[in-house]
Amino acid sequence: MTLGEILGVLGRRWYVMVPLTLIGLLAGGYLYVAVPVSYESQSSVSLLDSRAAARPAPAYGNPIANAGGSLVVTADVLIRTLQSSDAGHDLHQLGVTDRYTVGFAPNASGPLLSLAVTGTDRTRVLAETTTLTSFAGEQLRALQAADKIAPQYYVSATPIVLPQEPVTKLKSRYQLVAAVVIAGTASGFFLSFALESTVLARRRRKGLAPPAVRRPHRARRPGPLRRPLDATTLLTGYLALAFFIPSNLDLPALGGVGTPANVFALLGLLWYVASWLTGRVTPAPGTRGPRLVMCLLAAAVLMAYIADGARDSSHEEVLAADRGLIGLLVWVSLVVLTTAGIHERERLDTLMRRLVVMGSIVAAIGYYDFFTATNIADSIHIPGLQSSVAGVRTLDRGSFVRPRSTTAQSLEFAGMLAILVPFSVQQAFDPVRRHAGVVRRWGPVLLMGGALPLTVSRTSIIGALIVILVMIPRWKPQRRWGAIGVLLVSVGALKVIIPGLIGTILTLFSTFLSNSDSSTQARTVKYSAIVPYLREHPLFGRGFGTFTPDLYFFTDNQYMLTLAEMGLLGLLALATLFLTGVHHGGAIRRLARTESDRELGQAFFASAAVALVISATFDALMFPMFAGMFFVTLGAGGSYLGFLRRDAAAGAAGPGAASPDVPASAGAPAGPAPASPPQLVES
């Protein structure tokens, strides 16, 4: 369905679209005027061990040196105490009547608390923040006194950042205005096309022809409004925005899910719904599996959203739950477009080729970041967009800078490359592309595979090992031994070209296995802190997207985060997502008639296996680029499986059977369809 046709429907149903849009705009304007400007003041408090407890080595009596992970549980107890209704009543008696929040400070691995008060009176907010900071220390002393702890062993709450001058907070007002305007416009859009679909169905029942479409008198090149659109074109636009606009930049009113790529994906979903309602596109046969899995995920997210509304959640958690619903719609859009919107194998091949090429360019940017010890994304500033990730900076490990390219963090960069490398290898070996030069075929493999160790992370190495263990054993011996030789030579080349890199990576794993790595200890100590939150809401969780670091702490584990946010139902949905991707790869390999398709199935299997494993090393789906690439590949696997199923059904029905995609017209002779292997189309 072209843009011109969409505008034509909206024009015919203006009496639906215009009033609802105006209502949304007027309501948004009223909220902008009526909602007062709020101010926020923050302070930071650190828990310090007593000198008596810190006397043994290595702290030597210094409480600051002993403020480690062992106090994280104490900090969690204090946070829960300050968040209780009793503490709220006591603070109200002390004059703290505005909304306050208490949580772990962002990017803090130790017992560092962030306190904030938000209100409409600047002077009052500052005074209330001072009261809250003092009250936190008093509560900690009261908790220890109630347990009859000797005073010399008291843990102290020491302010390290005094209450700051209140700053203006306009984001919440912008979010309310944007939500109302978007709701009005989207309602008008859907109702317009629903009415159009009803009118067309009534005309078909009466045997009337559809409304005539005005056409130009002479043939000419179609303009932007008349140019045909398909799912591959829309997904290509999404990939370009996702790869080349830093994923930490988003629209201020939408928060972390408001990246330009996500907004474009939502527009793609509107295009599909409009085309489906008017009968211009129908879901591709045999591709229902991924969409059913997304229904399970949607059920888990919606139940978690209801659970968040049922408990006494903060304003920030309510907004975070709303953003979670937006993120779910983005993921649904990607899966629907790839599975239901692509009806030609060649167009799907083109999409996968473009995915690999764009991923290679992002990997090349990572090389620049690594060797120049900088980050090119920091110099990209787009008017109207802001950074949603606090403290985005260049990270170091050992003597190396960890690149992040256009991603939000180096772990996202590593994870995204790891799930795309299998497809670059498959396309390099594909006999259909033998006419392409060596650089065009093997350049993406070199760029993405070589960038993985440059991230100096366990995630990247684990991802690379999974790809190797899944793909290489399925190859013929000649190729297998050649690949092993190339890998050994590549490791030696890295050791010579970048001295110390291989040693640093080996040290990462040796310290991990010996449990002497500080980053690993900081992560594992938080796993036990998740348990109390899970016990409170074991089945449906606290709300998808609500367990944010500014309110709680980083989990660095997607499975643990899902347990906290969506409970056991969410964990089941997440595991089903990953296993569905693995199933796609195995099913494609079983149904494939050519070696090229069998290797494509193995690539999907390896990519899904990587996502399944490395999601235990960081909160994978909270990063927009990684999540987007995962759901695109998930949908693409389901789409390829649908093509092979339809080919198998057509082959079983005999050479004279009609294709399931295009039914034979009445009275037309059914001839044998030419049998030709699927061809890759260059992007």
TrEMBL record:
Ranges in a coiled coil: none
Transmembrane feature ranges: 14-35, 174-195, 228-245, 257-277, 289-306, 326-343, 355-377, 451-472, 484-509, 559-579, 600-618, 624-643
Residue span(s) of domain O-antigen ligase-related: 445-574
Bilayer topology annotation: Multi-pass membrane protein
Annotated region described as Disordered, given as residue ranges: 651-683
Keyword vocabulary terms for this entry: Ligase, Membrane, Transmembrane, Transmembrane helix
GO molecular function: ligase activity
One Pfam family, short name: Wzy_C
Localization in the cell: Membrane
Annotated InterPro entries: O-antigen_ligase-rel_domated, WaaL-like
Skewed-composition ranges (Low complexity): 651-670
Source organism superkingdom: Bacteria
Entries under PANTHER family matching the protein: LIPOPOLYSACCHARIDE BIOSYNTHESIS PROTEIN PA4999-RELATED (PTHR37422:SF13), TEICHURONIC ACID BIOSYNTHESIS PROTEIN TUAE (PTHR37422)
Protein name: O-antigen ligase family protein
Organism: Actinacidiphila acidipaludis
